[in-house]
Backbone:
């Protein structure tokens, strides 16, 4: 695990989150990498698609599966700006993704709210938390303040 690479890739996920913000979506962004290559990107599109499952992680996972022609991602890393919800954690579990790197926590809707300290990911998935936490949290706070 390379902290500099984690920051570089989280910046890419933040770009995706900014797209969601500009589209009036909750600003969550995700990228999936294998090695140093981004193979998939996603940002929330729930409002655009009228689909409560169109979370950044799901969009990115579907794109990665299609790119690789595989339903498993053991060599991949997901960088996501906000702690995945339980639905996304379940999809990540089934993908057998190798690593999840998250930016900031989501105490209201994140998997920890439902699962507590129980790991919702595949047993081989490595989790890294709080990468660029302040930047990721600031974007979320800014979005919700603009809605009030």
Residues:
């Amino acid at each position: 695990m390379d902290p500099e690479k984690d920051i570089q890739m989280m910046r890419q996920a933040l770009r995706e989150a900014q797209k969601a913000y500009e589209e009036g979506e909750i600003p969550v962004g995700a990228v999936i990498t294998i090695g140093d290559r981004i193979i998939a990107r996603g940002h929330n599109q729930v409002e655009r698609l009228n689909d409560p499952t169109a979370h950044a992680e799901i969009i990115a996972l579907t794109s990665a599966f299609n790119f690789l022609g595989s339903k498993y991602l053991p060599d991949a890393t997901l960088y996501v700006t906000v702690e995945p919800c339980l639905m996304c954690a379940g999809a990540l579990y089934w993908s057998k993704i190798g690593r999840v790197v998250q930016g900031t926590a989501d105490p209201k809707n994140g998997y920890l709210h439902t699962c507590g300290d129980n790991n919702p990911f595949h047993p081989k998935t490595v989790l890294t938390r709080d990468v660029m936490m302040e930047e990721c949290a600031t974007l979320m706070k800014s979005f919700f303040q603009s809605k009030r």
In short: DSSP finds six helices and five strands in the chain. The helical segments are 3-22, 46-49, 56-68, 86-95, 111-115, 133-147. Residues 3-22 form the longest helix (20 residues). The two ends are 39 Å apart (CA to CA).
